[in-house]
Request: fold
Amino acid sequence: METLLISRQDGVVTVTMNRPAKKNAANDVMWRELLETFRAVATNPEDRVMVLTGAGGEFCSGADLSGRGDQSNVSSLTRMRVITDVCLALQRIPQPTIAKVRGVAVGAGCNMALVCDLVVASDNARFSEIFSKRGLSVDFGGTWALPRLVGMHRAKELAFFADIISAKEAEEIGLVNRMMPDGEVDAFVDGWARRLAAGPPIALAQTKRMINNSINATLEQALEDEASAQANNFNTRDTAEAMAAFLEKREPRFTGR
Reply:
């Protein structure tokens, strides 16, 4: 990988955007590598949880608008479809995903964090839907993620004014799950990632899918989906293992089967 660092340990795959000189702004190469990586994680049974972060004390400053790279002759719509594919690939990862945010998370970088399942921010993190200040509309799923996280009116406020908000304010309005001193972020995310990696992969994936779909479902549809998912769980070795571990007063060992 030219723009990403990827490491794996004990079921946790960490994807680090690695263009620190550009505050990890995503160029054409990074978009392609993110797409390849997200699709690979989604189909790798050894990956139980994915942590997405950035190098050099920054998360991601959005799309790199400084140059067109080797796709200078490609239409804007074609380029946007690549970015759309990256967003969909991230959202479709069945495993839990955690954004570990330090420094700037603006534009597409902000929404890349928000599309993850969980967001943990350093107290030095800054978030912005910067698009309107660049004469652009919101992209990378921001129009989907923002109303779900903060409600319609607050979403419009963030998108229209494109203000930079602190990690503290982001936590207060529900953009992030946790905000903490920078020195505590790594240990906290590691702890969450280890807990998720030790969890039941099939059950967690089904829960993630159902919660993601819930806003478009009636209660009847949600209950039917829950019933089907639970029936599927009862046919897995993991649920049998969980029941045995409960009776034997020990921690379960889930295998994803």
